[in-house]
Amino acid sequence: MKHGILVTVMVGLVSGLAQAGGAQGERSEGMLDVNGARIHYVSQGSGTPILLIHGYPLSGELFARNRDALAAAGYRVITIDLRGFGQSSAPAGDPGSLSTYAKDALAVLDQLNVPRAIIGGMSMGGPITFELWRTAPERFLGMILINTLANPAGIVEQNIWKGMAQKASTFGPQSLAPELLKDMLTGETRVRRPADAAFLTGIVSQASVAGDVAGANVLATRPDSIPTLKTITVPTLILEGLEDTVYPPEFSQKMQQNIAGSKLVIVPGTAHAAIFEKADAMNAAIIAWAKTIR
Q1: Maximum alpha-carbon separation in the chain
Q2: Minimal CA–CA distance to 80: which of 39, 112, 118, 117?
Q3: Which positions of the chain have pLDDT values less than 70?
């Protein structure tokens, strides 16, 4: 692999920091009135802000295993539940769109008095991050792209997301968990760590039907962000799971080749929810990279 880095990260130091009493710093959590929606957020730690945007149909709790370690390393970690997901709600007239998700994220940063941040997105959070870059590049200190891609959805993928929306509408948000968990976690994790699958199932079940439908439409109709890649001028970290079958490593390699100076880290033994499944390795990669940002 010419540009990428295949790693098995040693994480004892990071884990020890995360477990140290009081090392995680300040934590605040609440609801913010944002663009007609009620957005749930968590802010933990102090220092350079890192905003993390979850994928479909999850919530900010996807990053529950990342907050402590990153806060202990000197960062302020901010996670949000996109409108219609997790604890956030949305007006019936605007359950969610790529533009709205991006505007919501900027409004949260404004209300938390964060002028600039490292901004990262997992899966659907990637297209949202690209939209944020196109809208407000001055708000970025750096960018993290997690198990995502810049390509638009092809015909097959478009119909997969349409099917997800129809299933959520017919059988409820919880019905999406069996469809998604087989790709979010490796078979080994699902068998040996059933609590991980149960945790993600609970997050999926929290979403609203309107949120599921809106998010599926965003994924099906997302724009081609490949031209955007060459405009990115901030330090960029691309994180990928070697066994990701939703957006495989080839997509991450393509992004790395098109973003000048970007770094690619591929973690073995993990699938689409790599940031949760192998959180220690992902945390170590983020911390090592973020230290280079001035």
Answers
A1: 50
A2: 39
A3: 1-25
- Residue 276 in contact with residue 269, Cβ under 8 Å? no
Q: How many CB atoms lie within 10 A of CB 10?
A: 10
| Residue showing tokens 């940002």 | 293
Residues 238 and 227: their CA atoms lie apart, in Å, by 17
Among 238, 226, 179, smallest CA distance to 205 is for: 179
Cβ-proximal residues to 20 (8 Å cutoff; 6+ apart), any chain: 72
pLDDT at 293: 87
Does the domain at 5-290 match CATH 3.40.50.1820? Answer given as yes
Contact 264, 238 (CB under 8 A): yes
Position 267 scores a pLDDT of: 98
Nearest one of 230, 284, 239 to 261, comparing CA atoms: 230
89: DSSP letter: B
Q: Which residues contact 36 (CB under 8 A, 6 or more apart)?
A: 90, 91, 93, 94
CA angle 110, 114, 120 (to 5 degrees): 100
Q: Rounded to an integer, what distance in angstroms lies between the CA atom of residue 24 and that of residue 76?
A: 9
Taking residue 182's Cβ as centre, other Cβ atoms within 10 Å add up to: 15
User: How crowded is the C-beta side of 119, counted as CA atoms within 13 Å?
Assistant: 28
Domain boundaries, the chain: 5-290
The residues, ordered by sequence, that sit 6+ positions from 206 with a Cβ below 8 Å of its Cβ are: 59, 85, 86, 87, 173
b/e sequence 221-232, b meaning 16+ C-beta within 10 Å? ebeebeebbeeb
Residue 18, pLDDT score: 35
pLDDT at 24: 55
Contact 68, 44 (CB under 8 A): yes
Q: DSSP label at 188?
A: H
In whole angstroms, what is the distance from residue 193 CA to residue 187 CA?
10
Q: Which amino acid is at 262?
A: S
Contact 83, 104 (CB under 8 A): yes
